[in-house]
Each structure stands twice: as C-alpha cells, then as structure tokens.
Specification:
three-stranded mixed sheet; single chain
C-alpha cells in the first residue's frame, strides 16, 4: 500500500509549491543513493520522496490526488491512453487550419528563458562621480551549475522528455475546430523533466553564487544614472541567454559642495572686516584652491561665479560653473576690549546711519508703509 504523499514529504495539504520543493530537496540530500551506497532503506525513501514530489508539483495530478487519492492518479493515467484517438483527429484539422489560425502543431521546440536582469546600487563620493572611477563590486546571482552544466540531472543521467507535452514545452487545448497553445504546466516550457536531480543544484540547473566584477564609472555621472553590464545578470534556463546587470549610481552628499546638474555651489565664509574693506579668500574647487577677490562693502548672500569649475556632463557638453555665496561671519568669543571697540564703531556709524546701512533704512521704511504708520 502506497504512503500518503504529504506524509512522505512531511508537509501539510495546504503547502505551497515552494514548501514542497524545499521538503523534497532536504529528503533528496539525506537519502540520495550516492550518499547512501548499498542502503536499501535509504534508496526506497528516496524513491518515495521523488514520486511524491512529482505528483504534488503537478497541478492536475495534485488535484486528482487530493480528491480521490492514489485511485485518482491511476484513473487519470488510463484516461491519457484513450486520448490518443482524439489527438489524431485534431491533428487533421491542425494541419489544415494551423497556418491560417496559428494553432499548435507537433514537433515544436522547447522554450528557452532569458535570465533575470539584476540591479545593484552603487554609492560614490562626489569626486569619484565627477572625474570617473573604477570600482570592484560583488554581486550575488544565479549562475549555471558547474556540476551538471545546467541540465539539473545528477552525473551519469540526463533529463527525459516530458510526458505531458511530448518534449515540445507546449500543450494544446482544443476549442471546437481550433486549438490554443500554452506553456506545459509540468515542465514549465523546458520540454524535459529531471528524474535524478543533481546534488549541487537539486535539479534546478542553477546555483546562487557571488561574483566580483570590475565596473568603470564614466566621468560626470549623477544620482539616478544607470550603467548597463550586458550578460552579467542571472543565467538563463533551458539554454536561454543571461540577463543584464544595471548599476544604479547614488552620489553621497558632500561636506562643501552641492550639485545641480553640471553646476556646483558652496558657501564661502568671509570676515566682517574683509566684507567691509575688501580682500581675498581662498575657495576650494574640485581642481584645487583658487583665490577669490572680495570687493569692499560686499553684502552677505552675494554670489560669485567661477566659470568652468563645475562638472562636465557624462552625456557631453560644456563644463559647468561653481557658484560661491558669501556668508559674512559674525565674530564670536570676543574679549572685553574687542566688545568696546565694536561699540565705538557702532556709535560712529550711527552718526550717518542712512549712508552706512542703506538696506536697513529701506527695510524699516517698507515696514512703516505696510502698517500705514
């Protein structure tokens, strides 16, 4: 008497397909004949687990088993034998109308599946983004199993043609004189099924590995830019091509500069004396320090433009500029003598207040007009 397939895999009847696969892989590793030579009990347990896995991962077989048990599977197998005559009849009409209506035909090829694209987020300093950079990254992805070379089968065995689709990867559904074609639910379009799974990849043909890649970052990239590495995504299935890897750039905030496209901006602190009397200050740029001339009577907030000190865009065009905004710095930690000198300066300036502080005068006149004073 055959055992309950759910008990064989130790999963509930409501188990998802992913849980069933996980349970099977665990048992396959434990009872595989290669790991248990000359152990009849282990060999029997392995066969039971494989049989349970094949039934419970097939939607049609699982439905029949859930409703009628092992008897339902035997009835379904008998029904497949009676279907051959109907298939022959439908082939006649398929040959006549197939080219016109695009119906499924025998002799089709198994589907190949392109590997998934991957995304990698790469953080760069502003200097690296502006001038370009080469960086080594490590990307986890699915690659072809080196043990079975992507077949999914253990050494010495090969995948066999799928019984459901006959190796085409497609099944046909008859609708009167017409036929609809869809991916085979048993082999998922591969056209083959694995009877003796590989111990390394458990029949999947792919394993997850981390691979180191050298990525050349072009000069001028900015946050949101993507660099495409063709063929560096996940491995395809059933001989399909690999996907691509997209490296998404994120530029870290800089302590001094802010970036807006090809332009940069920064704040330049200037002493009260320099802003009043004029002078020079050293300003940092991405190419090194430059001397900025500050005219006398410069007000806080004034912006000076340094041409060609910005960023050259990655897609071409002229290099941007650096905008320096002056911030007049108020002196702090004053001594008693320094405080007294500032008070004397303030008293001197108040003697001709409108001349020395034109903005202050304009501000208060505007306030009075607003309130109607």
């Amino acid at each position: 008497m055959k055992k309950d397939y759910y008990k064989v895999l130790d999963v509930p009847k409501t188990a998802a397909e992913a849980d069933i696969k996980k349970a099977y892989r665990r048992l396959a590793m434990k009872y595989h004949p290669d790991r248990n030579p000359d152990d009849k009990e282990a060999e029997e347990r392995f066969k039971e687990a494989k049989e349970a896995y094949e039934v419970l991962t097939d939607a049609q077989k699982r439905a029949a088993y859930d409703q009628y048990g092992h008897a339902g599977l035997e009835a379904a197998a008998g029904a497949r034998g009676h279907a051959s005559a109907a298939d022959a009849f439908s082939d006649i009409f398929g040959d006549v109308f197939g080219d016109i209506f695009g119906s499924a035909r025998r002799g089709g090829h198994a589907q190949v599946f392109r590997g998934a694209d991957l995304r990698y987020e790469l953080e760069l300093d502003l200097h690296e983004a502006v001038f370009g950079h080469s960086v080594e990254i490590e990307v986890p992805k699915l690659v072809e199993c080196e043990t079975c070379h992507g077949t999914g089968s253990a050494k010495g065995s090969k995948p066999i043609a799928c019984e459901t689709c006959g190796g085409s990867g497609q099944v046909r559904i008859s609708q009167g004189f017409f036929q609809l074609q869809q991916t085979c639910p048993k082999c998922r379009g591969a056209g083959t099924v694995v009877r003796n799974p590989c111990d390394t990849c458990f029949g999947q043909g792919r394993v997850r590995r981390s691979r180191k890649l050298s990525v050349k970052i072009p000069a001028g990239v900015d946050t949101g830019d993507r660099i495409r590495l063709s063929g560096e995504g996940e491995a395809g299935r059933n001989g399909g091509p690999p996907g691509d890897l997209y490296v998404e750039v994120h530029v870290r905030e800089h302590a001094i500069f802010e970036r807006d496209g090809e332009h940069l901006s920064c704040e330049v602190p200037v002493s009260f004396a320099t802003a009043s009397l004029g002078g020079t200050v050293e300003v940092p740029t991405l190419d090194g320090n430059v001397v900025l001339k500050i005219p006398a009577e410069t007000q806080s907030g004034r912006v000076f433009r340094l041409r060609d000190k910005g960023v050259k865009p990655v897609r071409g065009g002229a290099r941007g500029d650096l905008f320096c905004r002056v911030v007049v710095e108020t002196p702090v930690h004053l001594s008693g003598e320094q405080r007294e000198l500032i008070r004397k300066l303030e008293e001197s300036l108040k003697k001709d207040h409108t001349r020395h502080s034109p903005r202050e005068k304009g501000f208060f006149e505007g306030v009075r007009r607003f309130f109607g004073v």
